[in-house]
Amino acid sequence: MNQDTDQEDLIPAILADSRTIAVVGLSSHTDRPSYEVAHYLQSHGYRIVPVNPTYAGTHILGEACYATLQEAASAVAKEGGKIDVVDCFRKPESIPPLVDDAIEIKADCIWMQLGIVNQAAAEKARTAGLKVVMDKCIKVEHAVHA
After folding, report:
1. What per-residue confidence (pLDDT) applies to 4?
2. Residue 5's pLDDT band (cuts 50, 70, 90)
3. What are phi and psi of 20, to 5 degrees?
4. Pairing of strands 59-60, 63-64
5. Which CATH code is given to the segment(s) 3-128+135-145?
6. Of residues 82 and 9, which shows the higher confidence score?
7. Starting from the edge strand earliest in sequence, which strands make up the sheet with 20-24, in order?
């Protein structure tokens, strides 16, 4: 089985089993893809947790925005929850530290949005036990698999 097929097999379960999605790089600008995707996910019952140092301390889509994934995970943990998916709206070269953070917070999945591929980071995440989706839009995949 190739990586794309493995990824396709994982997507329905990831979407069904996940409730809390950290959106790294979420913008407060309503015309940005990150906002559109987060709004869609929120309207379909997922809790989104904004992660963007530019907007830390503010609210996006009614949710507190955090500077780092660790801060977001800590806040969610205080409420008795955990971050299931780390959805990345970042450049491919920014993915390795996000994988490290996702491993540290014990996320279940790292999801790299459409156009984002980092094979080395993906392999590190898989080795640590995370599910990996690359080069796929979570909104599009939800619409297909819902």
Report:
1. 57
2. low
3. -120, 125
4. antiparallel
5. 3.40.50.720
6. 82
7. 47-51, 20-24, 85-88, 109-112, 131-133
CB distance 75 to 57 below 8 Å? no
* Residue keyed to tokens 């979570």: 138
- Mean of the per-residue pLDDT values for the chain? 95
Ranges of each domain in the chain: 3-128+135-145
Angle at 28 between CA 13 and CA 122, to 5 degrees: 40
Q: In terms of pTM, does the model score above 0.90? A: yes
Q: Beta-carbon neighbour count of residue 91 at 10 Å?
A: 11
Q: CB burial class (10 A; 0-12, 13-18, 19+) of residue 114?
A: middle
CA 143 to CA 112: how far, in whole Å?
17
